[in-house]
Amino acid sequence: MAKISRRLQTLQAKVEDKDYHPLEALALLKDTATAKFVEAAEAHIRLGIDPKYTDQQLRTTVALPKGTGQIVRVAVIARGEKVNEASNAGADIVGSEELIDEIQKGRMDFDKLIATPDVMPQVAKLGKLLGPRGLMPSPKGGTVTFDIASAIAEFKAGKLEFRADRTGIVHVMFGKTTFSPEDLLVNLKALQETIDRNRPSGAKGRYWRTFYVSATMGPSIKIDVTALRDLKLSEVG
């Protein structure tokens, strides 16, 4: 069993074994972010789903109103006029077949890859490379589209793609620990509403099981899911 550092032991002592009100939990998250770098604010949510069944899978996107706090490097694979459109819309890397070749040879200097539907048959051969990194374009993720300009703007502004892993747990970053508790709460509320809105049709019984937040290097803090779901965004933002 891994040895827990003294720093983490000290931080864990600050966290009580209880369900915290969302704003209280996020203030505590900031208080336990003591690493020497700016940590991410992370949510770890266990849902009442079994993703081995197709009607119990969750894969979608969330637009975080307060952004992610990260610079997102967007690459676009397209053809013809769409190449110019992507460049004009602020894509960091743009190309056609030659970009597919560069990615095959190991080019990975981007955080999000968007492709137009007409190039997807060629992009498909990148599946083994991009899939494990979560970079493979998909219609569900909003990364296969002819509306290139909107997609670039949304991902640069704080749109994230996420999915439940094979055990039914969602792991997603919802900001940075430099954000105020209020801004983190606005983002967390958007995440909760997105998960509720995209509840898989096959989900049975209690959908929300456990909901924890933490800083990247901090202890887990349990959130009162009912209190979060009952919050109105007008009370938050």
**Number of contiguous helices:** 10
Distance between the termini: 42 Å
Structural class: alpha/beta
Radius of gyration: 19 Å
Please name the fourth-level CATH homologous superfamily of the largest domain. Ribosomal protein L1/L10, rRNA-binding domain
H and E string: HHEEEHEHEHHHEEHEEHH
Name of the CATH class of the largest domain: Alpha Beta
Strand order of the largest sheet: 7-1-8-9
Mean pLDDT across every amino acid position: 92
Amount of helix: 25-40%
3D shape: globular
Largest sheet: 4 strands, antiparallel
Low-confidence stretches: none
Question: In the residues, how many domains can be counted?
Answer: 2
Count of beta strands? 9
Indicate the CATH architecture of the largest domain: 2-Layer Sandwich
Beta strand %: 15-25%
How is the CATH topology of the largest domain named? Answer: Ribulose 1,5 Bisphosphate Carboxylase/Oxygenase
